[in-house]
């Protein structure tokens, strides 16, 4: 087990990629703090799935774009499960809006949730790890749109590309403390966020034709990569951004 004895916080873990990562971590031996905006049937299902693997699971609802909620999430994790070793910044939102119609509020909502939250969660964890002299690993979740232009995402794409710079800069500053920071850019992954693409007979064939492996990916496949980056097997990997996209960018 790559992550035996580790404790991880996964944001946006109630569904999709976050759920896939949380369950992959449990499979590899980690206890998991499941964060989402609300505690509901989705987070309860993830909790049960993790506990069925013999691991501890804790649901802590909160908005990771708010400082007070971020601090509470980590305080609760430390108190209930123990010191956190791994953070996955997965929480994110996407809207599709033509550039000339994009409002201030839409820009702020997306960039706050997708970028500011990753900075705040990373900072909160790093302060605790450094104060206690502990090592750790952070995995930021970006998007294929850091490299691919898709219409209507003038606010979303910059928030995801900026995560590459955030990853590099944090890794440079905390590496001396034994904290590694990497980024995963998922491609077309079978999640509720892109279900409308997967169910469209007009759109899906066009997108899949651009992917070398010829199919959408699965959340568990992103989870497997995240588990590697979080593990000691990746002890010399930091500041990197990896596309898990079936060859979409390279085709």
TrEMBL record:
InterPro entries in alphabetical order: NAD(P)-bd_dom_sf, SDR_fam
Oxidoreductase in keyword set: yes
Pfam families recorded: adh_short_C2
GO function term, MF aspect, one: oxidoreductase activity, acting on the CH-OH group of donors, NAD or NADP as acceptor
Keyword list, A-Z: Oxidoreductase
Source organism, top-level taxon: Bacteria
Keyword Oxidoreductase: yes
GO BP terms in the entry: fatty acid biosynthetic process
Family: Belongs to the short-chain dehydrogenases/reductases (SDR) family.
The protein's name: Glucose 1-dehydrogenase/3-oxoacyl-[acyl-carrier protein] reductase
Species for this entry: Edaphobacter modestus
Organism lineage: Bacteria, Pseudomonadati, Acidobacteriota, Terriglobia, Terriglobales
